[in-house]
């Protein structure tokens, strides 16, 4: 590895670690200040703060044999009930029941009651249709209607798919890639003679610099995953899980920042000064080009048709374009297990790998032609 590049990577990672350390410390202070026990009154669910109870509200407390603290809040006037199972550091389950339609009393079948009180997150039996299912970090929701009763189940402390953590890590990876992307341009600035006097071919020297930066980017992403896991652990036990989509996101979180780094490296490889301008301009352009390409789809005005014809091929050269196929989005949060490795994700990963190789080759070929 190139020693200068190694020092640069070390400094960047050290600053990243300090920022995450401060972030975790702030969460520790917040955890000590804000109560975390779950409350439910009226139409709200909160942590430690009870809202104003409606007249006639009945609240009962009990401790189950397994030590779980259960609170039942019943509002007969509004035909509404909350069942809260508070497991403390290991999370909580909140079950809200209300009438699916106005009129009549709160009717519960025996089977529905058993389901709601015994296994709120277990697999749904065949005799009801799930209406909604959402999965997010530390959070899961299921909602369904049975026998005229609409039930919503909130689970705090649910398993967190690693796909979400690596999805957050991509942001850090892109930032680190942007900071490190001026590596070859930095060699051009005032000491190119020294760089080319080293006892290594130019191509080998460039590849060593690139390898050091790539390792720093990946290390920064892994540091992000660890930091977010520790942040979750501040509030509740961090249940980590994997799904059929996790591998797609993990690979994408590695390839996307690397492709972005390679593109910026190729754009600045022949610059002696001002390579920061390339990084600054690249972000708005990389975001605007795909937006214009999508917005002008099917345009009937000639000007917009021209914009569309230009931006579509440019967007395919933009690594950020492929983020939509590999990172968790609203659809994946609705049902993460329904978004496995698919053709679009595979094509996106392959495209990012090809773009990385092309941009790295362009960067190295440009830099080897530089003269002091």
Please explain how this structure is put together.
The protein has 372 residues and is α+β, with helices and mostly antiparallel strands. Helix content is 53%, strand content 17%. The chain has twelve helices and eleven strands. The protein has helices at residues 3-33, 110-118, 162-180, 183-188, 192-196, 202-235, 246-268, 275-295, 302-316, 323-326, 330-334, 343-368; strands spanning 38-41, 44-47, 58-63, 69-75, 80-86, 92-99, 130-136, 139-146, 149-156, 160-161, 240-241. A hairpin with a 4-residue loop joins β4 and β5 (80-86). α1 (3-33) runs parallel beside α6 (202-235), α3 (162-180) packs parallel to α7 and α6 (202-235) crosses α7 (246-268). The protein starts with a helix and ends with a helix.
